[in-house]
Design goal:
Elements: H1 2-25, H2 29-35, E1 39-43, E2 46-47, E3 53-58, E4 75-78, E5 83-87, E6 92-97, E7 106-111, E8 128-132, E9 138-142, E10 155-160, H3 166-172, E11 173-177, E12 184-188, H4 191-198, E13 210-215, E14 224-229, E15 245-250, E16 257-261, E17 276-285, H5 286-289, E18 293-295, E19 301-303, E20 317-323
Parallel strand pairs: 2-8
Antiparallel strand pairs: 1-3, 3-6, 4-7, 5-6, 7-8, 9-10, 10-13, 11-12, 11-14, 12-13, 14-15, 16-17, 17-20, 18-19
Amino acid sequence: MRIQRDGSTLNRQMVALVTLLRLLFVPPAWAAESSAVRVTQFAPQGTVKNVRQVTASFSAPIVPFGDPRPAQDPFDADCVEKGKGRWISSRTWAYDFNRDLPAGIRCTFRLRAGLKTLKGKVVVGTRDFTFSTGGPAILRSEPYQGDESIEEDQAFVLSLDAEPTEASVLAHAWFRIAGVPERVGARLVTGESRDAILKTFWRGSMSGPTVVLQSRQRFPNDAKVTLVWGKGIAAATGVATDRDQTFEFTTRKAFTAQFYCQRENADADCIPMTSMNVTFSAPVKWEQAGQIALVATDGKRWKAEAKTDEPLTPDVFVSRVMFQGPFPESA
């Protein structure tokens, strides 16, 4: 009986030893998962501007580094923009586009089916990697951001990084005006009016696609105004902006004209031997300012004069007009 008991104990010990050895030499599921070959890094992804290159890295060598024979690209590129792939190292691949990508482009790189490492392991994990260059964005505005003297019916000339669709601009571009609770819609300036506005700019300063935008409502004087280039403005490809761009401005103060002359003291009348003047809160074309006249009670008129650094033509702007004396006393 004693021998039987010892043999049974020995059998149990042998079974336990075999089980232990299996646990030691057979990797658990998490270890097998960690040893699988996959893409460890892919860039860019999401929304990125000014893309010129895509890169991808693998967790194991895919090609023999330094092999002069051309290696097959590990990805199929679904993109309207063309480029060429190359291996930087045995694990890192790059795709160089022929140019910096404009806005409105979406590209997907799909891992080739059955791609294997040098040791014959199949690459697993995420297979599709996508990025876009975003919808049309404002690169520059005229007037500039922060201008504190925009006009009540100001037209905004916007230089963009892609051509937007008219419908998306009208739907998602708008204005916020201090004191006005609701948002104010925008309209696109087109035709001869647009051409006339653009002629006032040096074209080199407004390169690329350009739109001219105007509020559907006049701005009040001396008010804060925000131009919102909103989320959802799309290029012809369908790629749209995913966030708002905002530009802050202030409208000019109400136009005023002020009369002044030289006096002996603040309560005295004008000295008749000196000039009398009218100043403006904003420059006025001489074509209009020149029509101002000083008229005496007997009907005598004095014409306005102006001093400028250039010939006084109808289109020249002046900030002041004057009337030269002498003038009759007590008149």
